[in-house]
Amino acid sequence: MFNKFIGFIGRNFRNPQGIVGVFMTKIMNIMNQRLYRAVLENINLESNNVILDIGFGNGYLIKQLFKKDISIKIYSIEISNDMVNKVLVKNEKNIKNGKLSLLLENIEKTSFDNNIFDKIVTINTFYFWANLEKCFSEIKRILKHNGIFFNVVYTKQFLDKIICTNYGFMKYEIEEIVNITKRNGMQIIEIIEIEKNKSYCIKSCLGK
Fold it and tell me: Beta-strand (E) ranges in 71-185?
């Protein structure tokens, strides 16, 4: 019974659903404050940038990006229908004025045109990418030639301390993620250490 409950919690990290999903995303907002800060401090937004947020959860990063008060367009994708509906309600104004688009999509295959994003950001979704090759192929297709991909992750060393990550998580050390990124045709720009041996932001671009 206990294992079923822990497994249920683990699966809600990947695909937040219902009241439990709402609760889990709030926990993630608190837990991931340093990760959000790392993105916000390094994303270097410019006027008219087009941004993609992969796995937006309850929309926390969207809110923080708009606080920068720069003229940007954000597209956000999420596999949880519940989260899409909740974030739609909270962002009606930005959606109506064309600043934000929310879509129920998976990064393995999106509906976007080629070469449209200046920055692509994902925080804590990498563990759930079932087909890494497809995901990176799609990122390369939709990222501009001079665009940047921000992949923000916790290490296997840290995740192993959280029991529910034994269910549905693929865990990697930072060196493994760097090698996977390179193998899939991306060039590493910078590895930002957020907390030593715990969390990192890997910045990459299209390989030459």
Answer: 73-78, 100-104, 117-123, 143-154
Place of tokens 């693929």: 170
Phi-psi region of 55 (alpha: psi -120 to 50; beta: other; left: phi over 0): left
Pick the closest to residue 138 from 110, 117, 102 (CA basis). 110
pLDDT digits (tens, 9 = 90+) for 28-75: 667 789 999 999 999 999 999 999 999 988 899 999 999 988 999 999
CATH topology of domain 2-206: Rossmann fold (3.40.50)
- CB burial string 92-124: b at 16+ within 10 A, e below: eebeeeeebebeebbbbebebeeeebbbbbbbb
Q: Considering Cα of 65, then 180, then 78, then 102, what sign does the dihedral take?
A: positive
The β-bridge relationship of strands 186-195 and 199-206 is antiparallel
